[in-house]
Amino acid sequence: MEKLARKQVQALTPYLSARRIGGSGDVWLNANESPFDNEYKTNFTRLNRYSECQPKDLIEAYASYAGVSAEQVLTSRGADEGIELLIRAFCEPNQDAILYCPPTYGMYAISAETIGVERKIVPLTQEWQLDLTAIQAQLDNVKLVFVCSPNNPTGNLIKREDIVALLEMTQDKAIVVMDEAYIDFCPEASTVDLLEQYPNLAILRTMSKAFALAGLRCGFTLANEELINVLLKVIAPYPVPIPVAEIACQALSEAGLARMKYQVLDLSANRAYLQAGLSMLQGVTVYDGWGNYLLIQFPEGDAMFKAAWDNGIILRNSLIKDCVRISIGNRDECEKTLSFIRNQISAIA
Questions:
Q1: Which of 143, 136, 152, 137 is nearest to 118 (CA)?
Q2: Partners of 314 in the beta sheet?
Q3: pLDDT at site 346
Q4: Which domains does the chain have, with CATH numbers?
Q5: Which tens digits make up the pLDDT trace of 252-275?
Q6: CB neighbours of 35 closer than 8 A, spacing ≥ 6?
Q7: CB atoms within 10 A of CB 215
């Protein structure tokens, strides 16, 4: 049956998500999930009816949280669907291109390749910032420029002045897509205030991280109303199931937001604990992180990843040489991980 698939799909290597990679253990710090398993209630009525395409209560609740108007919000099945919608809506297959800056999230490239859209790559600088000169030289036929901040997997923030320069550079040419999946851990770094000034800005958000709702698959795209209306032309008729909308609204209620902010503070404290402990180890480099994860460089990254894996501590290997990404879990998980790594480093020394 594979021979019947489109040539791009036949040649495609699927994104290796944490769940596809698998593993077996009792400490799971590989998928940037929240350790908080919050309880929600829904009566599961009206399941015989289709949901609204864009549930009004959910749209208004997230618009209020994000500080935008309801007309500037589109909800989807996670931010991943937002990526796909943007590419489908704005890129002609075998004609247009997207541009992205690795090391970064892998789904930008895979979504484009699946649809038959060219991928242009401009690596981040050694400081993991935008190479604006190189980007400008590659903008021919580019319709979408994807920028992740805080960036996954490096954890750093992209300089605001560079984002503004990119928006200026691409006006009337391309849309800058800011992936803010982790912005709830550093809301002061959001670009949402730039929407008013730049119609070529789109922002991706998710409830998977800080809201501890990875299994709900609820994401958002923020943009000006004209851009949102284009996305509404290509989105599925019923993208958000009724229970998803109800639970998401509970998470966005006054009590839900207070809980989320408390849990973010707890995770930030655990991140600082893990960062301080790892930084004391010989030969280990801990990069500053602004999300719910840290990127760590070890003397032998692959060996450390495998040793942890074999001992039931499931981390995320990285394409960056000798680097491993560690999600921030609860304090017990962070203590177990730090203790294991400390013992491994001591054994090597």
A1: 143
A2: 28
A3: 83
A4: 2-34+256-348 (3.90.1150.10), 56-253 (3.40.640.10)
A5: 999 999 999 999 999 999 999 999
A6: 267, 329, 330, 333
A7: 9
How far apart are the C-alpha atoms of 250 and 333, rounded to whole Å? 28
Judge contact between 143 and 149, C-beta under 8 A: no
Q: Which residues have C-beta within 8 Å of that of residue 285, sequence separation ≥ 6?
A: 296, 297
**Mean predicted confidence (pLDDT) in 77-82:** 97
Amino acid at 18: A
Residue the block writes with tokens 């859209």: 117
Section 329-340 average pLDDT: 97
Percent of the chain residues topping a pLDDT of 90: 90
φ and ψ at residue 275, rounded to 5 degrees = -60, -45
Task: Please name the residues in contact with 19: beta carbons below 8 A apart, sequence gap of 6 or more.
Answer: 31
Separation CA 17–CA 192 (nearest Å):
28
| Residue pointed to by tokens 């004391």 | 280
Cβ atoms of 331 and 273 within 8 Å: the answer is yes
Residues in a beta bridge with 293: 327
Distance CA 160, CA 197 (A): 14
